[in-house]
């Protein structure tokens, strides 16, 4: 079931790619970004984009936590090959995915390749032939989602992807960082 802002963000406790406990802490503005798996071309392209924006987002006080439904071993290998400046968490049991109402759809997943072919190709360039082979052998039906959470632990914006490449626009993230954060502020969830 989709979460709606402004409600309190569900708590979680998982282990990141460096073996550290990760939990949602109050007092920090946070972007939770839910991805499919480490061999997803769309996911890799979005991780690349987040990395490009990271310095500015971090300087403005945003913490980024990226989740993959992949195993700890797959996430550790992903981070070893492509280190990232933000937290990356393996959630193979989908604990956080369930708490945040992450959706699944094989039809919307397949549709993404046709709708966002250029992003798919750019993602393939990142993961390479071996990554694409693994992705095609084990396709995912997980749809991406993003959540902007304020310092008090309220979800300010929910963004459930309409397809496998659909993430919250960077304009929304910067608007969140530059807006007066009022936890009682009502925002319309993306449907």
From TrEMBL:
A Pfam family assignment: AhpC-TSA
One GO MF term attached to the UniProt entry: oxidoreductase activity
Organism: Acinetobacter tjernbergiae DSM 14971 = CIP 107465
Domain Thioredoxin positions: 3-182
Protein name: Thioredoxin domain-containing protein
């Amino acid at each position: 079931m989709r979460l709606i802002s402004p409600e309190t963000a569900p708590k979680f406790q998982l282990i990141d790619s460096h073996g550290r406990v990760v939990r949602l802490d109050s007092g920090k503005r946070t972007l939770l970004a839910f991805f499919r798996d480490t061999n997803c071309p769309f996911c890799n392209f979005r991780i690349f984009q987040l990395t490009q924006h990271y310095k500015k987002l971090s300087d403005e006080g945003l913490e980024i936590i990226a989740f993959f439904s992949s195993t700890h071993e797959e996430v550790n290998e992903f981070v070893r090959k492509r280190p990232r400046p933000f937290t990356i968490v393996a959630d193979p049991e989908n604990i956080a995915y369930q708490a945040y109402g992450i959706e699944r759809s094989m039809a919307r997943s397949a549709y993404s390749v046709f709708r966002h072919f250029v992003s798919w190709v750019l993602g393939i360039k990142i993961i390479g032939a071996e990554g694409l082979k693994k992705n095609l052998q084990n396709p995912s039906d997980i749809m991406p989602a993003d959540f902007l959470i304020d310092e008090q632990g309220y979800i300010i914006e929910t963004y459930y992807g309409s397809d496998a490449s659909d993430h919250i626009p960077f304009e929304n993230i910067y608007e969140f960082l530059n807006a007066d954060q009022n936890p009682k502020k009502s925002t319309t969830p993306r449907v």
